[in-house]
């Protein structure tokens, strides 16, 4: 059994190990002028990551046939429209949470 101090040190260590790989690239890139083509390419990275997460969440691949997870689909569609309409991350996240809660409550 570990003590509280050991647990706190483990949590701090995990936080550092998680944080460093995310910060180190920004430290190095800050001093370098990147070419325009690289900057244009980097603008697509968040969209690619978000798309991969959304598609992975929408599809059920546990069986032999790939199918749509309908409760998530019924949450995704109005949330997508809200995101396109408001262009606000916080409003989109809050709307998605509320819509998912309603979908789960009623279905």
Automatic annotation (TrEMBL):
Keyword Transmembrane helix: yes
Pfam families found in the cross-reference section: AzlD
InterPro entries: Brnchd-chn_aa_trnsp_AzlD (IPR008407)
TM segment ranges: 6-29, 41-59, 79-103
Domain of life assignment: Bacteria
Keyword Transmembrane helix in annotation: yes
Keywords: Membrane, Transmembrane, Transmembrane helix
Name of the protein: Branched-chain amino acid ABC transporter
Species in which this protein is naturally found: Lysinibacillus alkalisoli
């Amino acid at each position: 059994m570990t003590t509280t101090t050991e647990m706190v040190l483990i949590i701090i260590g995990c936080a550092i190990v998680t944080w460093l790989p995310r910060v180190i690239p920004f430290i190095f890139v800050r001093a370098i002028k990147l070419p325009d083509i690289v900057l244009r390419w980097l603008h697509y990275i968040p969209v690619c990551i978000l798309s991969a997460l959304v598609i992975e969440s929408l599809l059920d691949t546990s069986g032999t046939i790939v199918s749509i997870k309908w409760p998530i689909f019924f949450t995704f569609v109005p949330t997508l429209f809200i995101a396109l309409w408001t262009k606000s991350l916080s409003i989109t996240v809050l709307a998605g949470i509320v819509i998912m809660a309603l979908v789960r409550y009623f279905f």
